[in-house]
Fold:
Amino acid sequence: MTASRRALEARGAPRFRPSHPSAHANFPSPSPDERSNCRKPGIGLAHIRRTRPTQRPGAAGRDQEKKQMQLGIVGLGRMGGNIARRLAKAGHTCVVWDRNESAVRELAGEGNTGAADLAGVVKALDAPRAVWVMLPAGGPTEATVAELGTLLSPGDIIIDGGNSFYKDDIRRAAGLKEKGISYVDVGTSGGVWGLERGYCMMIGGDKAAVDHIDPILAALAPGLGDIPRTPGRDGRDPRVEQGYMHCGPAGSGHFVKMVHNGIEYGLMQAYAEGFDILKHKDSTELPENERYTLDMADIAEVWRRGSVVSSWLLDLSAIALAENDELSNFSGEVADSGEGRWTVMAAVEEAVPAEVLSAALYNRFRSRQEHTFGEKLLSAMRFQFGGHVEKKSGS
Structure:
């Protein structure tokens, strides 16, 4: 057991087991870090444990353990701050900046180096520099990448770890290449659980740049953990089993993450509709002898244990329903953050039918007009995995 592992367990850090029929989690109390990751501490978190799975030993992993790196991190929100914390645990040095000065002070107080602005981040890093941008897609990321392009030097690397549109990545990479600066897009999945559970990463960009930051990626990835190996994978890239993949050239990482999020929309919608049907089995529209009053929390719990629909999203649904089986703390208004729309647009461009993903997106549009129990469950799942808080009706 490593010193960092002993320190984590000494303060009550949890153990994570992925949800599948052969390996289900027990959910005692979370660590203090986990509680700090959600906007509303106490909702659901008392039921779940998550931790960093062990890295699978291998030549690549052993090499990366020996190489410590510097990384600039711009954007210290729900994920950016925890990325810095996870890297620090692995021995990497982070220079952090955010417009929110209190976020910078908090991370600096934990041993990271705080900067006053983007120029300060660049100045504090040794060449060749690498700067990870973790900001909302669109204007904030666009402006930050553009400014970094004027501050960095040939041989440096900009990493966009947010959810940018993949066509923006292609354009940015081409412009930065003219300056000798590499651009790497990283689709990052893991949400507020990533600090202990690790982040699944889908990566696009030049191979040399991706290889250069591999120690960073290896430290952030979840590792093989206790997920069974897939038969027939001998001879394939071992990094994929660790939870990160170089998908291809610029934009490919965010494209794969975009479709990942589109699939997420569909999965969540399927659960929401199923539970809505269960919830309304006591409808007065039915003959009295066909009405059932079903326990939503118990159904979610029993499905977690060995059923073919068990999943992490179902785990999160079970947490929310155990806390409040009417989900009265959720309005049912469900936001969409962009990736679902982009996935449907890609399907149209490729002439690929995507009926489920399209319907899931359209249902989110409809949820802003009227709210069902199923839509409240969608809101509950989004809060559990990402700390997303929906706007109240009329606000």
Summary: Confidence is low (pLDDT under 50) at residues 1-64.
